[in-house]
Structures are given as structure tokens and as C-alpha cells.
Amino acid sequence: MKATATANANIALVKYWGKRSSDPILPQNGSISMTCEGMATKTTVEFSEQYAEHTVTINDEEFKKDEKDIHGHIDRVCKLAGIKQHARVVSESNFPVAAGLASSASGFSALTMAACQAAGLKLSPRELSILTRQGSGSACRSVFGGFVEWHRGQRDDGSDSYAEEIVGKEYWPEFRMIATIVESKKKPVSSRGGMAQTVATCPYYKDWLATVDGDLKVMKEAIEERDFEKVGSVAEFNALKMHATMITTKPSIIYWIPATMEIIHAVRQMREEGIQAYFTMDAGPNVKVLCQEQDVKEISMRLAELEGVTNTILCKPGDGAKIVTEHLF
Ligand code: 2P0
Q: Rounded to the nearest whole angstrom, what is the distance from the C-alpha of residue 235 to the centroid of ligand 1?
């Protein structure tokens, strides 16, 4: 009753921002992401009579209960599988956690897959995505590789709110995302808290929602056509619209720091010079720069020279979550 899974993080090109239900987690709008080879989490789960309770260790530290209910998510798997044992969970990520780099997406995706396998629960990829979504919304997208859409769904039970592959990673191998790190510490406002506050208090939230279906449609076309400019421009504007709702929330949530703005302006400057680069940002100050393989060298060099940039992580379209044979304990 032991299994290990790896899952890549995913970065949204059309963002999930706001819930229509928190139990089960259901989004206000659909979203589209790229699964990122380059930012991964590996998780081993073992169920055994010898464990008196669930224990979770993330990057060598014991996980303390917070708003992301990892223990409750393990219980969900146990209930579905009809098992009574407790779990030992050990998880490691190769990138900073809780800094707006989608660590909960890769984390919950790897955890759910490993826990199901260890518990002997056989689920289809769609069922796995629905179960993963109940732990953390964006994680349901990391079940799949390449470019992925998470459908909003209409039903209250969430049975039609699942992720699905648009195209696999091999469809667009030249696509790149450079995660540009300006801060690695835990963010002051969590995504979960931030999106709840936005839905409750942002006067423009309904205007954001009114534009998302259009973005989803154009983004899907752009990916299918491998039209980089179209993907980049829709992603950039979608991220700015999402941040506009955050900024106009009470109290205002401003994730950007001066280095964030430095990168935004540098990307715009590069475009003026004819280098195809676009930015997207999530619930944190770090910026993800979208580009193509041929421009990575030049863009990375320019980003590294900017004040406040500590590190860059190069990502390309990656695989969905998978079971591996080497355990962490
Ligand atoms: C996204 N983010 O689409 C958006 C963009 C952050 C900004 O999904 O409460 O950790 O666990 O469902 O998935 C981060 O939110 O939130 C997120 P929960 P989650 O990637």
C-alpha cells in the first residue's frame, strides 16, 4: 500500500480566480494552462496499520495545518477506497513553495495520484482530475500534460468540472516559459483567501467574468494554431485583468513589488525591439515570461541583468502526473 507519483506545476494562460463553491471546490470560470516541465513535485504515500494518524512532510518539514487541508484530502481518498489505515506522506518540490509558483497544483496532483495508487483505487484520468480538484482547484490541470483546459461546469456536485488535455506536449515543443523569481518566501495573502476576498468585494469582478469565456475561446484557437503572438497577447491581458480585480479588492491585494514592474517593462521593451516575449503573473510577485525556444538565450540574459531578479527557471510543455517506481522513503 505504498506508491509514488510525480506531477509538474502548471501555469495558467487564462486564469482561475474565484470560486462559486468552496465545498466542493468549484470555479467561477474555466481556465487554460500549460503543464510545466521544470517545476515538479514528487510524493510518496504509504497506508499502514502502524500509523496512528496521517503525517505529512514537505521538503523535510512537517506540514502544519493551514487552509489547504491535506489531511482532509487524504481522508477523501480513504473514504472512496474504503480503507481505514492512516498515511505517511513525504513530498519534495524542486522549486520554491507558496510563492505564486503553483506548488499546490503539483503538490495536490502528485499526492492524489500517489494516494489513489497506494489505496488501490482505480480512477479514469477524468475522475482523478475531479478528485484532485477537491484538494486544490488548479491542481486538477496538472493531471494532464501539454496544454490543458479546466471546464467550469454547471452542476453543483462538480461532476462536470474537470480538466482535459487540449494538445499534448509534443504538439508545441518550442514553447517556453521562464519563471523569473524575485521573491521565494511565502506570500502575505494566499490565493485562496485572495480570491474569496475578490469575489466578495471587487466591484469589477463581474466584468472580469464577462470577458473570460472570450479569452478561453481565443486561447484554445491560438494553441491549436500554434500562434505564439495570439497566445502571448491573450495571456498577458488576461493576467492584467485578473490583477486589476485583486488591486480593486478591499483591502487591496497588491502582489507586485518593484522588481515585478522592472520585468513587465523589460518584456514590453523587448517586444518593441521585435523579440517575441509576453508576461503572465499569478498570486505573487514573480513573473513568468512566455517565449519561444529560439529567443530563450537573449531573453534570459536580459532578465538576469534586472535589479531584483534572483533566479530564473526555464520550463517547457511537460507531462501530466505519473506513477514512478522510486520511493522517497
Ligand atoms: C491559476 N491561481 O489559474 C490561478 C491564477 C492563482 C492565480 O489557481 O483554493 O491554489 O486551492 O482552489 O488552485 C491558485 O489557486 O486555489 C490559482 P484553491 P489554488 O493558476
A: 16
